[in-house]
Amino acid sequence: MEKLDGEEARLADYFDVIAGTSTGGLVTAMLTTPNDQNRPLSPFPHQAADLVKSLTGPKYDGKYLHNLIKEKLGDKRLHHTLTNVVIPTFDIKCFHLTIFSTYQTLLALGEARRDQVSHGNKNPFLVLSLGTGTAKPVEKYGAEEAAKWGVLGWLSSDNSTPLVDMFMQASSDIVDVHISTVFQALQYPGDNYLRIQDDTLTGELYSVDIATEQNLENLVKVGEELLKKPASRVNLVTGVLEKACINATNEEALIKYVH
Fold first, then answer.
1. Which residues does residue 40 pair with via DSSP β-bridges, in sequence order?
2. What is the residue range of the motif GXSXG (predicted)?
3. pTM surpassing 0.70?
């Protein structure tokens, strides 16, 4: 976007609603928080996390993260954001969803749709959904193996975390299933929904907590290579990414979206 519209171009200038949950919520806040000139903050630099591991308590000390967020965002509040944001959360004290935490794309769609109806706007909207990457598709677990697991087996087996892996993959897949269903129901063109996801991550690239400079640089390279790959769609039957009906790379599809 900076190449097309100048160095001052920012994502908040292009979208009516930006939504994210968990890490996506932090990214949403960073992308939409204004600086002193009421423009989006400059792209945040790579910063290896100074985190404290613990065997008996939390794996990482959250104080550093809180201090870093405070340093970057200051005292800004949600109503200061430069475009509409949706950040789903879960209330662990009351044990209920404040907002549906795994359906951030659907939630943003609902908010945008209500706004369209209230203003008499019947034009279809465009949805860009960015994944954070998944592991290379493999047949990781078998029924015979899983049948022997107890509680600990589901939590950790052969240097992997089956239960966490399954929940993470399912929450990612359900976005594609539900958005496709919604767009069909609203009779929107299929290319109005663009999902960009890399499903080839392995090793440290797939880790959620290796924040070394080298790994961050490698992730940037993955993102740059992903832009050059053909736009894809998830096959709702097999769950595998396949080439989309539009003959374009992810980069070309993004340019079409913002222009």
1. 34
2. 20-24
3. yes
